[in-house]
Prior knowledge:
The complex is a heterodimer.
Chain A: E1 2-5, E2 8-11, H1 18-24, E3 32-36, E4 39-41, E5 56-61
Parallel strand pairs in A: 1-5
Antiparallel strand pairs in A: 1-2, 3-4, 3-5
Chain B: H1 5-10, H2 12-15, H3 21-30, E1 32-36, H4 42-52, E2 56-60, H5 85-96, E3 101-105, H6 114-119, E4 123-126, H7 131-144, E5 148-154, E6 157-163, H8 171-174, H9 187-190, H10 195-213, E7 222-227, E8 232-237, H11 261-267
Parallel strand pairs in B: 1-2, 1-4, 2-3, 4-5
Antiparallel strand pairs in B: 5-6, 6-7, 7-8
Helix pairs in contact in B: 4-5, 4-10
Amino acid sequence: MQILVNGESREFKADTTVADLLRELDVKPDRVAVEVNREILDKGAFAQRSLREGDRIEIISFIGGGQPADQYRDVS
Amino acid sequence: MEFTEDQITRYSRHILLPEVGGKGQKKIAKARILIVGAGGLGSPAALYLAAAGVGTIGLIDSDVVDLSNLQRQVIHQTPDLGRPKVISAKEKIQALNPDVTVLTYQDRFTSKNALELVKAYDIVIDGVDNFPAKFLINDACVFADKPLVHGGILRFEGRVTTIVPRKSACYRCIFKHPPPPGLIASCQEAGVIGVLAGIIGTIQATEALKLILGIGRPLTDRLLDFDGRRTAFREIKTRRNPHCPLCGDRPTITELFDHDPETCAVKVTSNA
Protein backbone atom coordinates (compact mmCIF):
# COMPACT_ATOMS: atom_id res chain seq x y z
CA MET A 1 0.00 0.00 0.00
CA GLN A 2 1.04 3.58 -0.64
CA ILE A 3 1.73 5.79 2.36
CA LEU A 4 2.82 9.41 2.26
CA VAL A 5 5.81 9.83 4.58
CA ASN A 6 7.03 13.42 5.01
CA GLY A 7 5.33 14.27 1.73
CA GLU A 8 6.91 11.40 -0.23
CA SER A 9 4.97 8.39 -1.41
CA ARG A 10 6.36 5.09 -0.16
CA GLU A 11 5.30 1.47 -0.45
CA PHE A 12 4.66 -0.55 2.72
CA LYS A 13 3.25 -4.01 3.14
CA ALA A 14 -0.13 -4.58 4.79
CA ASP A 15 -0.25 -4.70 8.61
CA THR A 16 2.71 -2.37 8.98
CA THR A 17 2.37 -0.36 12.19
CA VAL A 18 3.77 3.09 12.88
CA ALA A 19 6.40 1.42 15.10
CA ASP A 20 7.35 -0.86 12.17
CA LEU A 21 7.58 2.10 9.84
CA LEU A 22 9.94 3.93 12.20
CA ARG A 23 12.06 0.79 12.54
CA GLU A 24 12.16 0.38 8.77
CA LEU A 25 13.30 3.98 8.37
CA ASP A 26 15.79 3.59 11.23
CA VAL A 27 14.17 6.37 13.27
CA LYS A 28 14.32 6.12 17.06
CA PRO A 29 10.85 6.79 18.53
CA ASP A 30 12.33 8.80 21.42
CA ARG A 31 13.67 11.38 19.00
CA VAL A 32 10.50 12.22 17.09
CA ALA A 33 6.82 13.02 17.21
CA VAL A 34 4.61 11.29 14.65
CA GLU A 35 1.59 12.83 13.04
CA VAL A 36 -0.93 10.61 11.27
CA ASN A 37 -3.32 12.53 9.05
CA ARG A 38 -2.56 15.73 11.01
CA GLU A 39 -3.23 14.18 14.42
CA ILE A 40 -0.29 13.69 16.78
CA LEU A 41 -0.14 10.01 17.64
CA ASP A 42 0.62 9.15 21.25
CA LYS A 43 3.91 7.28 21.54
CA GLY A 44 2.07 4.51 23.36
CA ALA A 45 0.00 3.88 20.24
CA PHE A 46 2.92 3.52 17.79
CA ALA A 47 2.85 -0.28 18.00
CA GLN A 48 -0.95 -0.45 17.75
CA ARG A 49 -1.69 1.94 14.92
CA SER A 50 -1.61 0.06 11.62
CA LEU A 51 -0.99 2.02 8.47
CA ARG A 52 -3.85 2.37 6.00
CA GLU A 53 -3.70 3.07 2.30
CA GLY A 54 -3.33 6.81 1.75
CA ASP A 55 -2.27 7.67 5.31
CA ARG A 56 -0.21 10.83 5.55
CA ILE A 57 2.59 10.40 8.04
CA GLU A 58 4.80 13.24 9.23
CA ILE A 59 7.84 12.29 11.25
CA ILE A 60 8.74 15.41 13.21
CA SER A 61 12.20 15.54 14.72
CA PHE A 62 13.41 17.87 17.42
CA ILE A 63 15.24 20.88 16.00
CA GLY A 64 16.84 23.43 18.20
CA GLY A 65 19.85 21.92 19.76
CA GLY A 66 19.55 19.71 22.75
CA GLN A 67 21.28 20.57 25.94
CA PRO A 68 24.55 18.70 26.23
CA ALA A 69 24.16 15.94 28.77
CA ASP A 70 26.73 17.45 31.09
CA GLN A 71 25.83 21.09 30.70
CA TYR A 72 22.85 23.37 30.60
CA ARG A 73 23.52 26.51 28.63
CA ASP A 74 21.11 29.29 27.88
CA VAL A 75 21.77 30.49 24.46
CA SER A 76 22.19 29.29 20.91
CA MET B 1 2.14 60.09 19.26
CA GLU B 2 3.49 61.82 16.17
CA PHE B 3 6.57 60.92 14.17
CA THR B 4 9.33 63.46 13.63
CA GLU B 5 10.62 64.26 10.14
CA ASP B 6 13.59 61.97 10.77
CA GLN B 7 11.36 59.13 11.87
CA ILE B 8 9.18 59.51 8.81
CA THR B 9 12.31 59.27 6.69
CA ARG B 10 13.74 56.38 8.72
CA TYR B 11 10.55 54.32 8.39
CA SER B 12 9.55 55.59 4.93
CA ARG B 13 9.93 52.19 3.24
CA HIS B 14 7.51 50.76 5.78
CA ILE B 15 5.11 53.68 5.63
CA LEU B 16 4.95 53.29 1.84
CA LEU B 17 3.50 49.80 2.23
CA PRO B 18 -0.30 49.95 2.25
CA GLU B 19 -0.32 47.13 4.83
CA VAL B 20 1.82 49.21 7.19
CA GLY B 21 1.42 52.93 6.57
CA GLY B 22 1.76 55.50 9.33
CA LYS B 23 -0.83 53.67 11.39
CA GLY B 24 1.05 50.38 11.24
CA GLN B 25 4.35 52.05 11.98
CA LYS B 26 2.78 53.50 15.14
CA LYS B 27 1.69 50.00 16.15
CA ILE B 28 5.30 48.89 15.70
CA ALA B 29 6.50 51.84 17.79
CA LYS B 30 4.15 50.86 20.61
CA ALA B 31 5.00 47.15 20.51
CA ARG B 32 6.92 45.37 23.26
CA ILE B 33 8.82 42.25 22.25
CA LEU B 34 10.75 39.93 24.55
CA ILE B 35 13.64 38.03 23.00
CA VAL B 36 14.75 35.10 25.13
CA GLY B 37 18.39 34.49 24.29
CA ALA B 38 20.70 37.08 22.72
CA GLY B 39 22.51 34.48 20.65
CA GLY B 40 22.20 33.00 17.17
CA LEU B 41 18.48 33.54 16.64
CA GLY B 42 18.16 36.52 18.95
CA SER B 43 20.87 38.49 17.10
CA PRO B 44 19.16 38.88 13.72
CA ALA B 45 15.72 39.06 15.31
CA ALA B 46 16.82 41.90 17.60
CA LEU B 47 18.63 43.81 14.84
CA TYR B 48 15.74 43.67 12.37
CA LEU B 49 13.10 44.43 14.97
CA ALA B 50 15.19 47.37 16.16
CA ALA B 51 15.62 48.60 12.60
CA ALA B 52 11.86 48.24 12.12
CA GLY B 53 11.29 50.59 15.04
CA VAL B 54 9.84 48.24 17.65
CA GLY B 55 9.28 50.49 20.67
CA THR B 56 10.52 48.19 23.41
CA ILE B 57 12.78 45.18 23.08
CA GLY B 58 13.48 43.04 26.14
CA LEU B 59 16.56 40.83 26.12
CA ILE B 60 17.22 38.08 28.62
CA ASP B 61 20.45 36.12 28.60
CA SER B 62 22.87 35.19 31.37
CA ASP B 63 25.84 34.50 29.13
CA VAL B 64 28.90 36.44 28.07
CA VAL B 65 30.19 36.63 24.51
CA ASP B 66 32.48 33.74 23.62
CA LEU B 67 34.76 33.51 20.59
CA SER B 68 32.81 30.49 19.31
CA ASN B 69 29.62 32.61 19.25
CA LEU B 70 30.86 35.05 16.61
CA GLN B 71 30.44 32.61 13.70
CA ARG B 72 26.65 33.21 13.87
CA GLN B 73 25.68 35.61 16.67
CA VAL B 74 26.02 38.69 14.49
CA ILE B 75 24.93 41.28 17.04
CA HIS B 76 28.19 40.62 18.94
CA GLN B 77 31.59 41.59 17.63
CA THR B 78 35.19 40.73 18.42
CA PRO B 79 35.72 43.59 20.91
CA ASP B 80 32.69 42.26 22.86
CA LEU B 81 34.44 39.02 23.90
CA GLY B 82 33.83 38.38 27.58
CA ARG B 83 31.13 41.03 27.86
CA PRO B 84 27.54 40.21 28.86
CA LYS B 85 25.54 39.45 25.74
CA VAL B 86 22.61 41.62 26.80
CA ILE B 87 24.89 44.66 27.18
CA SER B 88 26.66 44.00 23.88
CA ALA B 89 23.30 43.57 22.12
CA LYS B 90 21.78 46.65 23.72
CA GLU B 91 24.64 48.82 22.47
CA LYS B 92 24.24 47.61 18.88
CA ILE B 93 20.49 48.12 18.97
CA GLN B 94 20.81 51.64 20.30
CA ALA B 95 23.46 52.53 17.75
CA LEU B 96 21.19 51.23 15.02
CA ASN B 97 18.02 52.90 16.26
CA PRO B 98 17.89 55.22 19.27
CA ASP B 99 14.06 55.13 19.10
CA VAL B 100 14.12 51.68 20.66
CA THR B 101 13.97 51.22 24.43
CA VAL B 102 16.04 48.18 25.35
CA LEU B 103 15.40 46.43 28.65
CA THR B 104 18.05 43.93 29.63
CA TYR B 105 17.97 41.04 32.06
CA GLN B 106 21.33 39.42 32.62
CA ASP B 107 19.75 36.34 34.03
CA ARG B 108 18.59 32.87 33.13
CA PHE B 109 15.02 32.39 32.02
CA THR B 110 13.59 30.11 34.71
CA SER B 111 10.23 29.06 36.10
CA LYS B 112 10.76 31.71 38.79
CA ASN B 113 10.99 34.74 36.51
CA ALA B 114 9.36 33.48 33.29
CA LEU B 115 5.76 34.46 33.86
CA GLU B 116 6.44 37.93 35.18
CA LEU B 117 8.76 38.66 32.25
CA VAL B 118 6.46 37.31 29.56
CA LYS B 119 3.47 39.21 30.96
CA ALA B 120 5.30 42.52 30.50
CA TYR B 121 5.51 42.04 26.72
CA ASP B 122 3.15 41.63 23.75
CA ILE B 123 5.08 38.95 21.86
CA VAL B 124 7.87 36.54 22.78
CA ILE B 125 10.65 35.27 20.52
CA ASP B 126 12.33 31.99 21.41
CA GLY B 127 16.04 32.35 20.75
CA VAL B 128 17.37 29.64 23.05
CA ASP B 129 19.19 26.50 22.04
CA ASN B 130 18.12 24.02 24.68
CA PHE B 131 14.90 22.10 25.07
CA PRO B 132 14.24 22.71 28.77
CA ALA B 133 14.18 26.45 28.05
CA LYS B 134 12.11 26.01 24.88
CA PHE B 135 9.44 24.10 26.79
CA LEU B 136 9.49 26.66 29.60
CA ILE B 137 9.04 29.55 27.14
CA ASN B 138 6.12 27.70 25.55
CA ASP B 139 4.51 27.03 28.92
CA ALA B 140 4.95 30.62 30.12
CA CYS B 141 3.44 31.99 26.91
CA VAL B 142 0.43 29.66 27.16
CA PHE B 143 -0.14 30.60 30.81
CA ALA B 144 0.28 34.33 30.08
CA ASP B 145 -1.68 34.07 26.82
CA LYS B 146 1.10 35.71 24.81
CA PRO B 147 1.92 34.88 21.18
CA LEU B 148 5.22 33.08 20.78
CA VAL B 149 7.45 32.79 17.75
CA HIS B 150 9.41 29.60 18.20
CA GLY B 151 12.66 28.97 16.36
CA GLY B 152 15.35 26.34 16.39
CA ILE B 153 18.50 25.52 14.45
CA LEU B 154 20.87 22.58 14.35
CA ARG B 155 23.47 21.52 11.79
CA PHE B 156 21.90 22.49 8.44
CA GLU B 157 18.29 22.54 9.60
CA GLY B 158 16.02 25.13 11.09
CA ARG B 159 12.42 25.40 12.16
CA VAL B 160 10.00 28.25 12.83
CA THR B 161 6.43 28.18 14.07
CA THR B 162 4.10 30.73 15.59
CA ILE B 163 2.03 29.82 18.60
CA VAL B 164 -1.09 31.76 19.53
CA PRO B 165 -2.04 30.14 22.85
CA ARG B 166 -5.30 28.19 22.88
CA LYS B 167 -5.96 29.17 19.28
CA SER B 168 -3.21 27.20 17.58
CA ALA B 169 -1.02 24.21 18.38
CA CYS B 170 1.53 24.86 21.13
CA TYR B 171 4.95 23.19 21.28
CA ARG B 172 3.63 20.58 23.71
CA CYS B 173 0.75 19.74 21.35
CA ILE B 174 3.50 18.26 19.16
CA PHE B 175 6.19 17.26 21.65
CA LYS B 176 4.78 16.56 25.09
CA HIS B 177 8.17 16.65 26.79
CA PRO B 178 11.78 17.41 25.91
CA PRO B 179 13.82 14.54 24.54
CA PRO B 180 15.90 12.67 27.11
CA PRO B 181 19.14 14.58 27.78
CA GLY B 182 21.97 13.72 25.45
CA LEU B 183 19.69 12.08 22.88
CA ILE B 184 19.55 15.09 20.58
CA ALA B 185 22.87 16.73 19.92
CA SER B 186 23.34 20.41 20.65
CA CYS B 187 24.88 23.04 18.37
CA GLN B 188 27.82 22.91 20.73
CA GLU B 189 28.24 19.19 20.10
CA ALA B 190 27.00 18.81 16.54
CA GLY B 191 27.69 22.20 15.00
CA VAL B 192 25.47 24.54 13.06
CA ILE B 193 25.97 26.41 9.82
CA GLY B 194 26.06 30.02 10.97
CA VAL B 195 23.78 31.51 8.31
CA LEU B 196 20.89 29.36 9.53
CA ALA B 197 20.62 31.68 12.53
CA GLY B 198 20.06 34.56 10.13
CA ILE B 199 17.49 32.70 8.03
CA ILE B 200 15.44 31.44 10.96
CA GLY B 201 15.89 34.51 13.18
CA THR B 202 14.71 36.88 10.45
CA ILE B 203 11.65 34.70 9.75
CA GLN B 204 10.91 34.95 13.47
CA ALA B 205 11.19 38.75 13.24
CA THR B 206 8.87 38.72 10.21
CA GLU B 207 6.30 36.74 12.15
CA ALA B 208 6.51 39.13 15.10
CA LEU B 209 5.98 42.15 12.84
CA LYS B 210 2.99 40.47 11.16
CA LEU B 211 1.46 39.80 14.56
CA ILE B 212 1.96 43.44 15.60
CA LEU B 213 0.44 44.70 12.37
CA GLY B 214 -2.28 42.06 12.20
CA ILE B 215 -1.51 41.38 8.55
CA GLY B 216 -1.08 38.29 6.41
CA ARG B 217 -1.37 34.73 7.57
CA PRO B 218 0.60 33.84 10.68
CA LEU B 219 2.74 30.70 10.79
CA THR B 220 0.31 29.09 13.21
CA ASP B 221 -0.58 25.40 13.05
CA ARG B 222 2.35 24.97 10.70
CA LEU B 223 5.96 24.01 11.31
CA LEU B 224 8.18 25.60 8.70
CA ASP B 225 11.31 23.46 8.41
CA PHE B 226 14.29 24.61 6.39
CA ASP B 227 16.96 22.32 5.01
CA GLY B 228 20.04 24.34 4.18
CA ARG B 229 21.71 21.50 2.27
CA ARG B 230 18.91 21.31 -0.27
CA THR B 231 17.78 24.94 0.17
CA ALA B 232 14.27 23.65 0.65
CA PHE B 233 11.41 24.48 2.96
CA ARG B 234 8.96 21.86 4.15
CA GLU B 235 5.73 22.79 5.84
CA ILE B 236 4.20 20.39 8.35
CA LYS B 237 0.59 21.12 9.14
CA THR B 238 -0.30 20.73 12.79
CA ARG B 239 -3.32 21.41 14.92
CA ARG B 240 -4.16 21.67 18.60
CA ASN B 241 -3.89 18.33 20.34
CA PRO B 242 -6.78 17.57 22.72
CA HIS B 243 -4.31 15.36 24.65
CA CYS B 244 -1.79 18.20 25.06
CA PRO B 245 -0.60 18.17 28.69
CA LEU B 246 -0.60 21.98 28.68
CA CYS B 247 -3.45 23.32 26.53
CA GLY B 248 -5.45 20.15 25.91
CA ASP B 249 -8.82 19.13 27.31
CA ARG B 250 -7.41 17.71 30.54
CA PRO B 251 -4.15 19.51 31.23
CA THR B 252 -1.69 17.91 33.63
CA ILE B 253 0.70 20.87 33.63
CA THR B 254 -0.89 23.56 35.75
CA GLU B 255 2.14 25.56 36.79
CA LEU B 256 5.58 26.43 35.48
CA PHE B 257 8.48 24.14 36.19
CA ASP B 258 12.03 23.73 34.95
CA HIS B 259 12.91 20.62 33.01
CA ASP B 260 16.48 20.05 34.03
CA PRO B 261 18.91 17.54 32.62
CA GLU B 262 18.70 15.27 35.65
CA THR B 263 14.94 15.05 35.93
CA CYS B 264 14.29 15.27 32.20
CA ALA B 265 14.84 11.56 31.70
CA VAL B 266 12.52 10.70 34.56
CA LYS B 267 9.75 12.96 33.31
CA VAL B 268 9.86 11.42 29.85
CA THR B 269 7.57 8.49 30.41
CA SER B 270 5.99 6.03 28.01
CA ASN B 271 3.55 8.55 26.58
CA ALA B 272 6.10 11.32 26.18
